[in-house]
Design brief:
The structure holds 2 protein chains of 2 kinds. Chain A is an alpha+beta fold. Chain A is built from 3 helices and 5 strands. Helices cover 36% and strands 38% of the residues of chain A. Chain B folds into 2 domains: 1-62, no CATH class; 64-98. Helices cover 40% and strands 46% of the residues of chain B. Chain B contains 2 helices and 5 strands. Chain B has helices at 2-7, 65-97, and strands at residues 8-14, 18-20, 23-36, 39-53, 56-61. In chain B, strands 1, 2, 3, 4 and 5 form a 5-stranded antiparallel beta sheet that branches. In chain B, a hairpin with a 2-residue loop joins β4 and β5. Chain B starts with a helix and ends with a helix. At the A-B interface, α1, α2, β3, β4 and β5 of A face β1, β3, β4 and α2 of B.
Amino acid sequence: MTDTSHASPDEAASLIDRAGEQAPKMLEKIFAAAQPGAVFGQPVESGSYTLITASEVTSGGGFGVGMGRGPAPKPDARQSPPAEAAPPAGRQSIGGSGFGGGGGSMARPVAIIAIGPNGVTVRPVVDVTKVALAALTASAAMLGLGRAIRKAAKGKG
Amino acid sequence: MRSVMDRLGAREASAEPVTVDDITVMPRSRALLVRLPKGGLVWNRPTAVLVERDGQARRIPIIDVTRILQVSLLGLAVLMAAASASLFGSRHRTGGAA
């Protein structure tokens, strides 16, 4: 992230140009996750079996650029700024600009492809923690709803 | 509508085939791409494995068991909530009419 204060319009334009140069590189990295190579791992040999992992990959990101200009604040009479910090004569406005971005990716194993003497088998990978969390959330939601309905029924009765 | 379609895209692709003895395995994946003016999103998941052996091709689907269980639990919760709400609604109406 970059932030400039007292940036001239030329400096701001240069900053936006630099952001424009970085953006395609960042997008390229995000969209690299769309390649099949991101989903399937390299084959690994284990005994008489060759194993390939298959994962779900999610990747995303974004960036933003902004700039603005406004009137220079008037110097406060009580706190007189030092002479070197005073704005030059004729400079009526100040501005700033910045750019920033972020992104992330996530992968989750889905299955293992096993190539062995008996042929090819696809063994699913079950994430027990995720399933347990989903079950807990669903149970809690149902309990909460049941309690709310009982409370509403009591209120009406 | 067209701009939405331009921003959304699905791509199905095959990974490098792996050959072990007389078996050739070609994993396939499907990617969903969302292109935004200042960013993007990619969701890529494995779909199937194409197995070729002795000149015969076979397709083995890759099933995401974790996702199926998660969606099933969510669906069950929504169904039970809808059933409870409908039961409560009908009882309330019957009680009000009596």
